[in-house]
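2024-03-11 09:14:02 INFO worker-7 job=invfold-0412 stage=load source=structure_tokens
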């Protein structure tokens, strides 16, 4: 089963994302995070942004990925609707993200997310695994 679920957590919010590949789980993780910011059905996929992240290990890649998306949102107002993630080599992520800029007349911000954390961070699965699972806690 692929997708994402929100975790109950005191003072913060957690997300668990799963996918048939690490790339798919990372895409679901991003969608899950943006579902906390605004109602996903209000976001249109009208523009695209390229996102690149480099990190020393999978855990740092997950945190860097989410924090880079939050930075993009904070600086430009870009709301992610969907994305295609590619891991061309270990420690490197390339993504094409589709969405649109925040429009206060159509998008009601539900949650302010400060950043992704390493607290209770889990990345499980191996190359060739049938399912990948990522759990992350967001500081709100």
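2024-03-11 09:14:09 INFO worker-7 stage=emit residues=140
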């Amino acid at each position: 089963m692929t997708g994402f679920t929100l975790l109950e957590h005191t003072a913060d919010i957690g997300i668990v994302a799963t996918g048939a590949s690490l790339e798919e789980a990372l895409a679901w993780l991003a969608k899950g995070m943006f579902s906390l910011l605004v109602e996903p059905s209000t976001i249109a996929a009208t523009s695209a942004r390229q996102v690149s992240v480099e990190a020393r290990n999978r855990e740092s890649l997950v945190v860097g990925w989410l924090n880079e998306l939050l930075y993009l949102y904070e600086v430009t107002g870009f709301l992610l609707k969907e994305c295609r993630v590619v891991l061309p080599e270990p420690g490197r992520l390339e993504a094409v993200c589709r969405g649109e800029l925040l429009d206060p007349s159509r998008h009601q911000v539900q949650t302010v997310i400060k950043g992704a954390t390493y607290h209770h961070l889990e990345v499980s699965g191996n190359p060739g695994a049938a399912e990948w699972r990522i759990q992350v806690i967001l500081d709100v």
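2024-03-11 09:14:09 INFO worker-7 stage=report msg="The chain has two helices and eight strands."
2024-03-11 09:14:10 INFO worker-7 job finished
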